[in-house]
Design brief:
alpha/beta; six-stranded mixed β-sheet; four-stranded antiparallel β-sheet; 10% strand; elongated
Length: 592
Amino acid sequence: MKKESNLKRLLGYAGKHKYLTIGSWILSAASAFIALVPFWYIWKIIQEVLNVAPNFSRAENLVHNGIMAVIYSVVSVLVYIAGLMCSHLAAFRIAANLRIELMNHIVKLPLGFVESFGSGKLRKIVNDSSAATETYLAHRLPDTANAIATPIGLLILLLVFDWRLGLLSLCPVVLGFLVMMKMTGKSMQEKMTEYQNALADMSNEAVEYVRGIPVVKTFGQTIFSFKRFKATIDNYGKWVIAYTKDLRTPMMLYTAAVNGVFVFLIAGALLLTRNGVTSEFLLNLMFYIIITPIISVTLTRIMFQSEDAMIVDDAIKRIDSVHDLKPLPQSANPRVPNNSSIELENVSYSYDGEKNALNNISLKINAGETVAFVGPSGGGKTTLASVVSRFFDPQQGNIKIGGVDIREIEKNELMNQISFVFQNSKLIKASILENVRIGKPDADRNEVMKALEAAQCMDIIEKLPDGIDTVIGTKGVYLSGGEQQRIAIARVLLKNSPIIILDEATAFADPDNESRVQEAFSRLAKGKTVIMIAHRLSTVINADKIFVLKEGSIAEEGTHNELLEKKGLYNSMWQQYKTSVNWKVKKEGTIA
């Protein structure tokens, strides 16, 4: 099956605006032909001047020819602007439709796929790749039509007056094209892909680094937190320098070729005038010297159009890489859970298809229980909570909520069953009211206020200039990490789902905020099935059951006291935790 061209695909997003794109090509080509007409009038001006010299008072048509040259120049510009207006209207519609379709697809994807793809990389594809198509359609395609029409008109002009000088003028064109082919061939396409990859990696790591600053401040990660980000910057720098060096010689030869037309004309003129100079030859030579700079401009346009075509090809491939991510399959006969119990049977999951992040895990959480996932970093705690939420499906095993396989639960119903509070909860740039109302879009103000009160947020509301109508992120209104957590908890309280997942929810809270957050948690957890993921073991000692994960497997399970009696991994972690707390207290000079 023949692959559909990029241009045809893009025009498929234009709808009725497709005809504006085609119109822009016609207008741009017409503009190119019209732009050559003033040169004919210039030739007539030069001809008349040479014919009447030295008695220039006999020149009767100079003003008329000059005015006509100006008129055609203005008409050419106006026609070109009209073409650009048409192309921009179509390009904006295409870019908008691309983004809409892409975002409609993204919202259908499981959160786990989006997270593994990288939020920075995903945002770059949605914004920059669609913007690349806009530049290509709005500017480069009309310029391509213009650049194709210009050589055709030039060829006629160059060969009509003196075919010998015309052929000499085309020599740099041939040389320029040969060098351009070297710079815009298959190897250049590969380098363009490498460039976009390096830029995407750097963008993604920049976003992740900024988001991770609270972790750096809390745990004192210093230079180690910057390592991956710096590595992408170094990789980008090395690539750009190497690429620039590779193109240094070809670009120098190209510039010399397209700007060296005068060398060919002068050398040819000297050769052709060995037996004397005629006024007609001098007229034509002067005309060619005036018109030939258009050649270098046209060739440079074509070169940049070739580069933009490669950029668009790469952009569409990146857009396709998102479209290739498929939503998780949905059951044709969805079922509703009977309760909020959770059961895992022999669940295994791998991110890369090689090493398992979860190994044959089986566990059961009764409805209304509060359980905790603890263990060393990288043990699989967050991955386990993610598969329970169906951020992605495990490669092996079954997960049931209320006795129903989660693959048989309709997506919206599953999201109604589960709420999340992450360690770095996000608030959108909107009012407190709208941020909380995300949990229940049809909630009224009274319901939102009750949720905020239950989440211990009234001290936050009282200090804000417009109360719950205050817009976060405007006029210097920002909240601390702990305050954002409490707003996020209010959102979850309003949603009132039967299952709550708390992922390191108090990691960055200061002591005052932590006590308020813990109080909010106690209200949140009433009558709910709660999964807590924590490194701070003091927050899980009252859990009904604690699961200790290590290297993707459940190493131990039981209550806090039962696990201490086992003298195993949990006991070791508890002793280390107590030591670290005592050391910190003594270091700060307070009572241990």
